[in-house]
Structure of Nucleotide pyrophosphohydrolase:
Amino acid sequence: MDQATLADLLARCRAFRDARDWQRFHSAFNLIVSLNLEAAELLEFTQWQSEQGLAERLESDPDAKQALAHECADVMMYLLMLSDAAGIDLYRSVIDKLAINEARYPADKARGVSTKYRDL
Amino acid sequence: MDQATLADLLARCRAFRDARDWQRFHSAFNLIVSLNLEAAELLEFTQWQSEQGLAERLESDPDAKQALAHECADVMMYLLMLSDAAGIDLYRSVIDKLAINEARYPADKARGVSTKYRDL
Amino acid sequence: MDQATLADLLARCRAFRDARDWQRFHSAFNLIVSLNLEAAELLEFTQWQSEQGLAERLESDPDAKQALAHECADVMMYLLMLSDAAGIDLYRSVIDKLAINEARYPADKARGVSTKYRDL
Amino acid sequence: MDQATLADLLARCRAFRDARDWQRFHSAFNLIVSLNLEAAELLEFTQWQSEQGLAERLESDPDAKQALAHECADVMMYLLMLSDAAGIDLYRSVIDKLAINEARYPADKARGVSTKYRDL
């Protein structure tokens, strides 16, 4: 399977970073902190909101959807840079973790329930 | 550029979800909360740690690096599912946000400093 | 008004800390990270939950309520230690911030709406 | 020991809330989300910062210290409101949790190390 897109996104993030000489700031530690701050920007969309209310807002308000897309992008960029800083193959990690989750959440036991694997 | 890999990862996440009939839980709201919880699992790596200490740990302890890779995977999976739930093209969003950041952080002004764009 | 209780809680947290020689770890930086990790433990209570569902769970399940109380305590302890490390009077800070919020959210404009002050 | 201060702070927060008819928004669920957002505001102080760098900034920059104090206040207010919404006695919870921590982290084993209790 072609890894073109993740590699492409990573290459663009690296080019952006290196044009600004920012690699010195991009330790795994710092990138984890920044990723958490961007995750909190996503969490803002849920503040004083219901599940249904957010769904409707994203349906009806293109600016809100666009803003959410940009926050998703921020998380993605930090995730790519973090993987890069830590020497992690993000694609391979997802494949591996899905296999672990397959074992933790057998489809017949986990169907239709949101129970944690420890309690299944 | 081929989008194969993000599409491939998303297809795998969807297959995992649908085999368990979990789409009912996968609202944008719920996925944002779960993404934040996984981001916090990443943040645990920084607890009582220095920047240098974490870098050395990831160098010298393959289990720690593997654990970090799995947490990165968790964030990635929720980010893919969130984009899917909200009808967002994650690849396009990163390209767009990088263009915005190019304008916010001109290379000549931002070189070597971690100042926020509002203060540049 | 007597400040006994916050002072009492802080004195107990300090005694706990100093009996373990942990002051060396208790920089503002580290305490902020740990406070965020404890906040995430609170956030776990909202995972795959509705607002109503969590309210009912806290009503009907004393163990869940007890677990929530302990997570609240963890946040409180880190908040006291953080204030201590940064030389902040937590009581005074709340009084000050309430006054700011009084100005930002005039009662007649803010009544019954959850709008951010920037948009009021 | 007198509980005056926590009770006093809670009474002030309640008065602020009720003057705006905000109790309808103040479910445990919503307050947990908002507390996490305020915790993230604290985390911003650690972004692109070292432990030493933040300590020096708080020493030398009264505005930064003031800003940190206000973020601490925001966490405190949400914590009081959350305890109130969930029927939790915050003071009692801290006393209880300190007793648990005393057992988990015996002073002679935990002295000078930041190891988690599971690994002590």
